[in-house]
Amino acid sequence: MPELAQRCSEIQPFYAVEVFKQGAALIAQGHDIISLGIGEPDFTAPAQVVETLNRASSAGLSGYTPPLGLAPLREAIAHYYGEEFGARVKPERVIVTSGASGALLLACTALIDPGAEILMPDPSYPANQNFIRCAGGRPKLIPCGPEQQFQLTANDIETHWGPDTRGVVIASPSNPTGTRILQSELKKLIEAVNARGGFVIMDEIYLGLYYDEKPESALTLDDNLIIINSFSKYFHMTGWRLGWMTVPETMITAVDKLAASLTICAPSLAQHAALTCFEPEVMRIYENRRLSFKQRRDYLVPELEKLGLTVPVKPDGAFYVYADVSRHSNDSEAFSQQMLAQAHVAAVPGRDFGPAHAQKMLRFSYTLGLNRLEEAVGRMAQFLR
């Protein structure tokens, strides 16, 4: 048998997927499972986007595209970021990728040398650590509490930056907390990283899913950030595997070379179809759906509080609630397993997102309609009684 690379033992499992598998097994046995686990919208691509895909397929537009993506799509993304999030970006700096995962693969490969230390908040999306490890880097999780929105601060950079530290990976809004970094705090953080000659990889996958004041991209603060985004969440195209990254001009050539070898190109039919996402009629659909997510958040957060599942920070983006179960259990994983088995409601235990809050936190995803959320709350109430 071939001997596996050392990195395979360092890659952490994704427990949200394990919860999904357990729920699927119960469904196969005939049980009705309400999944508040996987972060996948119940909405799918609008009909207009699907129609464009079908036309592109019929026209035979399924061949390779340039490694950096179709020029019209790169232009559309650049225009979208300028109009919606105040960031004026040249289309040449926009790189279309195979989902946000493809963007993270390219960014980490381009920036991280073996042994480099990368700072991340705890809690954070677990797969990001694995991209760092696969590039030979070492993620360093910094415990972040509710008093700082569960996000890194400039003080964290000053305290934890070491001789091997090369950069940070952050997200706003965040998975699992749904919290944003305030622009004033983000500015200080970026300045602290820049003062040390480091890089910032900024995940803005959920930037379009905001529920209070309209956000601006981090690019409005610094033009040299590496921005990651995707068509999966706001545009509801999870299985289409299409995303993008925005990089400084000095990185374009290197990323082009890497993309040509590692991915060749993002899915071509998905790229053609994605152009339709930015048409005014379709954007109105996405706006209505955003308001539906806000309605769900405004229902679920107070209902969880009534159940004694404390929400330390109200989420202001994405579609997640990070809730404290310590009034009911000191083991969130056992609590999650019991709730799935007895109430048939799935949620993700905190250990998926880092050790700092693992024992007491659960992530609830409100990607289902209000009727199912109401049923889930009723089941949880009965379970807790």
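Second entry:
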Amino acid sequence: MEPKGKILIIDDNEDVLFALNLLLEPYTEKIKVTTQPARIGHFMTTFQPDVILLDMNFRRDAISGQEGFDCLEQILRIDPQAVVVFMTAYADTDKAVRAIKAGATDFISKPWEKEKLLATLSSALKLSQSRKEVGRLQEQVLALKGNDDLPELIGNSPAMQKVKETIFKLSDTDANILILGENGTGKDLVARMLKHFSPRQEAAFVTIDLGSIPEQLFESELFGYEKGAFTDARKSKPGRMEIASGGTLFLDEIGNLSLPMQARLLTAIEKKRITRLGAIEPIQIDVRLICATNADLHKRVTEGSFRQDLLYRINTIELRIPPLRERGEDILLLAEHFLTKYNRKYHKEAKGLTREAKNKLLKYNWPGNVRELQHTLERAVILSENNLLRPNDFFFPHTTAGNDNENIQELNLEKLERKAIEQALKTSCGNMSRAAELLGITRFTLYRKLEKLGL
């Protein structure tokens, strides 16, 4: 029995309490015992036990176990995450099943076998530690998110009004949502808005960029692992799905998942439970999934590179985010927003854009969408010495001089991507981190694109 913790034992037989105290004392941090179920609230508040060992039958009723179930209900009202192990001398299968359904963790018969009792309590202490760690992580996530204002989705174009209307229509649903759109269109921002306007508004919002996680780390990141599960697993760690339980899990770039990883994700979604690496017992989860991708998943299903059954699970609702080039004067609204933001950040005083600068922004095709516009405004604010930003303050690495918009439309996607990467590497003098930042992607994604394009 490796883990140590605090155990509260509730039994009306003082001889049982004495024996259990004597037996468990070497294996625990501290033990409290009581013969009075009425003192449960007091001990849970002052002692805060990790595990509660609860007798099922007290003096009022020595057979049915109803008193034990009443105590369990009281315990779970005080702490829904409490770990409770039932004890009874009148064990039967029906009671065991009923106990587990009512929220007990396990069931021990009297008289007990020492090794079985120690093994049961060891598992219960591990479960308690796991639940507390998940709770701490969820609190950290909420603390990080709790100070944020309502996510701001800027845009008055008909295309963006439609997106906003759809988000508000979904505010009372818990359905899984698939967000589709090109890179840089703001799919992560839409995901946060969907979470904000949802029944899980106050719960955790956990994100995973599947494009930045190597395949060999996918399971440990998503499902977690137990101590000793692999060489560097020095302590147990909950996965992202476990941390997100009760809240929302945002899987970005889900189109990057390999078929084996798709199968593992599908199993977790269907069964609503996961098993940590190195663990035996599964963990129940309750997550609302929001996924995002720039890939055509329906086409990939036809090609055999994406599972149709997984697509059906994640796209109860599909929400398409329009590219920036289809949003008209939203470009100028966003430009003003980023101008204000970077004036404040870099202590600049640029007051606006000239008419010619606005026309230049409106004519550009924006292959990198809102993310590219944001970086373009940031560079302009940093480098400009003018009160008004002018056309020559804006540099578009995807175009050639004197032909900003025409050439960009002639390029196919692969040529455009190759040219953007080459320009980013040139601008960053070969610094991969800086090049990835300029392109608005992760280093891992940049490496994959370099390999794909043979650069």
